[in-house]
Amino acid sequence: MTTMLLYNGMVVCLGQADKLFDRGYVLVENDRIAAIGSMADLPANRHYDARVNCAGKLVLPGLVNAHTHTPMTLFRGLAEGVSLFTLDGWYNSIRTLELVMTPDMVPAAVEVACAEMIRTGTTTFADQYFFMDEIVPVVARSGMRAALAYGVVELGDPAARARELARVDAFLEDMGQQTDRLQGWVGPHAFFVDNTPESMQAERLLASKYNTGLHIHLSTDGEEDAFCRQHFGISAVSKMRDMGMFERPVLAAHSITIPPEDWPALAASPFSAVTCPSACMRAGADAAPVVGMRAAGINVALGTDNVCNNNDYDLFIQMRLMALLASFREKRPGALQAREALDIATAGGAKALGLADEIGDLSPGKKADLIVMDRGGIGWTPLPSNDPFTALVYSINGLQVTDTMVDGQWLLRDRQWTTLDYADAVRRQSEDVRRLLERRDAPV
Questions:
Q1: In three state form, how does the secondary structure of 299-351 look?
Q2: Reduced to 3 states, what is the DSSP secondary structure of residue 272?
Q3: Where are the beta strands (DSSP E) in 94-199?
Q4: Closest CA to 251 of 300, 287, 195
Q5: In CATH terms, are 3-62+367-417 and 63-352 the same topology?
Q6: Taking Cα atoms as reference points, which of 377, 286, 277 lies closest to residue 317?
């Protein structure tokens, strides 16, 4: 057994106990948290394999990015002024690039994404994309925890449907051999929009076969409801319930236009809404009804979406925007409290990914997934009036993260990556973009 003591820092535990130690410690044994407490109660004369002095710093649970598409760092800056929340906008910008990208362009883009998440305090993420043969090895090497969903786009084409469902089946079979840090999910891009009911039923069966969930896009502008009301006479949520889609966990990105009358059904299901504030703002969409959904009992998590919609991976910025948008939408200040925003970015994501017993707060027995932040940076003062919850949500950003740990292993130490080579990944990504644009612009 190896032990590591993080000591002398402010420890913000979150979770149900919601403990905060102004001068506390976290004891890590192997890959789990063994003890947490005040320095005044630290047992004397005990040996630790490593000691980390966190004086002037804050220790926090790692953040959970519950919706992204890591290979799309390759497209950053190539979809400006376009809404990716509509089928037309997505197809005529991003899809035209995806149709000419090659598998060898994926690894550098994923490495850049993972490095940016690690650098800004994310320890766990949910991805949805294809080219999973290229994605999985990079994520495994990064040391991050992830729920990786094979993305399915079939657009009503029976041949594409059969091909993609076979690939999902093979992917999930292979994921059973991976480290327990990585889960395999089914990733229909969007129910009723580019995945037909026939595909949906097959995807549900695959999720049941492999005891996993469905990572989808839902209700960005009401396309699903319009389709279902026209063809079935009921809302999209009602049709999904009739089809048994909520028998499996559903991770639903955006969830902006779900009718409130459907919220009770979702609250009674293993359903999580993932709000992506920057993405909805960039797309000119409405703010997700985060306050209303939470009041109805729906689990809400936080995501960045892809970095064409967003353009960065800093979840601290997303927390701030989420809280601001909540007040803007509800027309009252403090509609979403800072402490609630932190819960959404940690425990909300953990619950969405079925990991609530393992991550999401700092508690003895849970995985040692945590981040350390420099409290000497801009935004923390004055003390004590600027409490740590307010500072974390409204005042600082992810670049004040100095260290990131997953499973008791440092992925970032003293602001330096330990598992990834960011500079080399950026160099390779730049060359991949050059080749991508050449293929897009080549004469037909």
A1: EEEECCCCCCCCCCCCHHHHHHHHHHHHHHHHCCCCCCCHHHHHHHHHHHHHH
A2: strand
A3: 122-129, 145-152, 182-188
A4: 300
A5: no
A6: 277
CATH superfamily, domain at 3-62+367-417: Urease, subunit C, domain 1 (2.30.40.10)
Average pLDDT over residues 387-402: 97
The single residue listed with the structure tokens 């910008």 is 93
Taking the whole predicted model, whether its pTM rises above 0.90 is answered as yes
Can you tell me the distance from the alpha carbon of 49 to that of 1, in angstroms, rounded to the nearest whole number? 9
Which residue type occupies 77? Answer: G
Q: What pLDDT is attached to residue 185?
A: 98
Q: SS3 for 400?
A: helix
Residue pLDDT, tens place only, 182-222: 999 999 999 999 899 999 999 999 999 999 999 999 999 89
DSSP β-bridge partners for residue 267: none
Per-residue pLDDT, 35: 97
Quick one: tokens of 88?
Answer: 């037309």
* CA nearest neighbour of 225 among 261, 259, 273: 259
CB 216 within 8 A of CB 190: yes
What b/e sequence results for 62-93 when a residue is b if at least 16 CB atoms lie within 10 Å of its CB, and e otherwise?
A: bbbbbbbbbbbbbbbebbeebbbbbbebbbeb
Q: Which residues contact 294 (CB under 8 A, 6 or more apart)?
A: 300, 340
- Amino acid identity of residue 190, one-letter, is A
Q: How many residues does the chain have?
A: 444
Q: Six-digit token pair at 188?
A: 């229909």
- We find that the CATH architecture of domain 63-352 is Alpha-Beta Barrel (3.20)
The total of other beta-carbon atoms located within 10 Å of residue 53's CB is: 11
Cis, bond preceding 158 (omega within 30 deg of 0)? no
Q: Give the three-class secondary structure for 353.
A: coil
Convert the pLDDT of each residue in 399-411 to its tens digit: 999 999 999 999 9
Measured distance CA(176)–CA(94) in Å, rounded: 31
Q: How far is it, in rounded angstroms, from Cα 6 to Cα 283?
A: 42
Distance (Å, rounded) from C-alpha 33 to C-alpha 417? 22
Residue 87 has pLDDT above 80, yes or no: no
Q: List the domain boundaries for the chain.
A: 3-62+367-417, 63-352
Q: What is the 8-class DSSP label of residue 104?
A: G
67-77 per-position pLDDT tens digit: 999 999 999 99
Burial category of 41 from C-beta neighbours within 10 Å (exposed 0-12, middle 13-18, buried 19 and up): exposed
Q: Determine the Cα–Cα distance for residues 372 and 383; give it in Å rounded to an integer.
A: 19
pLDDT one-digit tens code per residue, 271-281: 999 999 999 99
